[in-house]
Design a protein that fits this description.
Number of helices: 4
Strand content: under 5%
Distance between the termini: 70 Å
Largest sheet: none
Structural class: mainly alpha
Number of domains: 1
Length: about 90
Amino acid sequence: MAKSEVIHARLDPALKANVENILCQLGLTSSDAVALFFKQVELHGGLPFELKIPRYNAETRAAIEEARILAKDKNAETFTDMGSLRRAIEG
């Protein structure tokens, strides 16, 4: 069957470059990779891999929650460079 459909996607430039480098080493183009992915979706009747929400340990979850709270706090101390952050940590 002739290939006539076109897909347009916006990607992070660094991600695109990194993936295209890997694909090139495998002898594939981006179009080849997308076609392979679509074929696998068709064969599996869904995504050909499992999607999971990352599980973090308690310390990481606490740090993420603290960061979310601080991001919303307009009075939270902020730093513009590593030197001022270091001085604040060291007292």
